[in-house]
């Protein structure tokens, strides 16, 4: 076996498909293909899978699920502006009373390049303006410190891989030291809140599989994983971000509706009341001036 191979774990009944991130002596560091889980296992515990494109393993992202998400981000169509001839010199330009859409802008930091590509494709399909960056979880706080002033987003997604450590103090689930990457996500959320304290101005979505939900919320996240310390799907953070991007700025996001879009539900994600970031403008300009 080698880095990049798709595998399952015999000791867990082959329930989760992983990709080998790194091999350290007789152990492999594993990242979930469909779930945002970081794990390790002895090489002898691994079963090799057909080395296909990982996308087929993300079966939960079915057309039916995607259609549901598209409906949730749909806005009422506005009439198209009539095509008008170019005005003559000195003639007053008449603006057409047609609305234009301004969904919220997303800054998406992901600790997995495969998930990032999948998310960026879906943001584009859902017409959500987004900038995405592959950043290792340990570097996310520093990256946000640089990127937030540059990108000025309405929504920040801080995600990657996480998990509860096998070797931890028995029963101690309250300490960040019991999690693989929750402390890195908490540090990144704190940087986001240093940049913008108001949760209604900057919406922060943070966490991955089994992340320390309470610590992320206390650090300033609007939405976080994982209340029941369960595994979450790779696209769950995107579901919430897309819904917020198309919820009007004067409306509170319906918590049950937005979490209902995710695969993990209330066990996997939770949050606090937050405003949307979608705006409409008028008029829709017929001519633009290049400068």
Automatic annotation (TrEMBL):
Molecular function GO terms recorded: peptidase activity
A single GO BP: proteolysis
InterPro entries associated with the record: Peptidase_U57
Superkingdom in the source lineage: Bacteria
Enzyme Commission no: 3.4.-.-
Broad class of enzyme this protein falls into: hydrolase
Sorted UniProt keywords: Hydrolase, Protease
UniProt name for this protein: Sporulation-specific protease YabG
Gene designation: yabG
């Amino acid at each position: 076996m080698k880095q990049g191979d798709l595998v399952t774990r015999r000791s867990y009944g082959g329930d989760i498909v992983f990709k080998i991130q790194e091999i350290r002596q007789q152990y492999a560091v594993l990242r979930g293909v469909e779930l945002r889980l970081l794990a390790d296992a002895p090489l002898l515990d691994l079963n090799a899978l057909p080395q296909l494109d990982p996308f087929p393993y993300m079966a939960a992202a079915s057309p039916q699920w995607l259609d549901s998400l598209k409906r949730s981000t749909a806005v009422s169509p506005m009439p198209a502006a009539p095509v008008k001839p170019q005005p003559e010199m000195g003639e007053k330009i008449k603006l057409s009373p047609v609305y234009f859409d301004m969904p919220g802008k997303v800054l998406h930091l992901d600790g997995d390049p495969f998930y990032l590509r999948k998310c960026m494709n879906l943001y584009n399909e859902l017409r959500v303006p987004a900038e995405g960056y592959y950043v290792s979880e340990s570097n996310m706080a520093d990256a946000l410190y640089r990127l937030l002033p540059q990108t000025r987003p309405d929504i920040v997604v801080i995600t990657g891989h996480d998990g509860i450590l096998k070797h931890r103090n028995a029963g101690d689930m309250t300490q960040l030291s019991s999690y693989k990457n929750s402390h890195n996500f908490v540090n990144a959320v704190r940087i986001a809140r240093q940049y913008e304290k108001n949760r209604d101005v900057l919406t922060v979505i943070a966490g991955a599989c089994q992340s320390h939900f309470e610590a992320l919320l206390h650090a300033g996240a609007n939405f976080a994983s994982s209340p029941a310390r369960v595994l979450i799907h790779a696209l769950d953070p995107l579901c919430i971000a897309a819904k917020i991007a198309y919820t009007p700025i004067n409306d509170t996001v319906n918590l049950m509706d937005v979490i209902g879009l995710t695969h993990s539900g209330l066990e996997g994600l939770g949050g606090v009341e937050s405003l949307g970031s979608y705006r409409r403008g008028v008029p829709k300009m017929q001519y633009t001036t290049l400068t």
